[in-house]
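Quality-control log, excerpt.
Job 1 of 2 completed; input and output follow.
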Amino acid sequence: MMKILFKPLLAANYCASKWIVNKKLPKRVIPTALHTFTTPFAFLSAGIYCVVIGSIEFKFKTFTPIFIGLAIVMLSVSLYIEKKAKNSIERWGIKKEYKSLSKNQRQNRNTFAFLFFWASIILSFYLGVTFTGGYLVK
């Protein structure tokens, strides 16, 4: 199930990382791919966290507990997904798949990775503004 859902996205992020990373530093491709793969999920979890915080009746007096909870949620989701994705790159043969792609297919995957990355950040921002707007109104 996880392979069906996440393999195209992980392959797209690996492809984008090969494009972004300097050719002289090939050992940085996998960390970059993992970072670009986990960041959207961390931001989506932050958006869901904002929905939960904005939906409860209790309102915090300061922003400190909100930011601490946000950091805990984002880091835990990011570390969990990074651990799973690190093993999946080798197991699913994403490096071999990258070598067999044409230039057009690589560009399509770069576009997919770019769109998913920015769409998740925009969605997270929207959820944060929509559901935690009550904290900004005095």
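Job 2 of 2 completed; input and output follow.
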Amino acid sequence: MNCLFRVFTDNVLRQGAVHEAATARVLKLEDAGVIEGYTIKVDQAKLGYEVHAFITVFAHHMNHQPFHTFIKKQESYVQNNYKISGEGCYLLECKFPSNDLLDSFLKELNKYVNYKLSIVISK
């Protein structure tokens, strides 16, 4: 039983359900596909990732594989890679420890695609 499952069932228990019934209910919801998974929200800034950027990617070639290969190697910075319609082909949500690392990332990214950068000022 994973940690998040235990937290979920513990919350159900606080609401007055017995452990076996709560576990059975949660397992049934998982089997039905209602519960798809469990997540933990992490404060990235406290881990040193203070630069939050959205990068709109413009790919001018039909072969996007080199871009995808590069992005897969950058998973410590790229939180989400969305294929989008409208302006651009992809929207990257990234977090970096510093502007210097963001700059290095952008120089490498520019070998594969063009981009437009937006920095998050506050939430």
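Post-run check on job 2. The chain has a mean pLDDT of 88.
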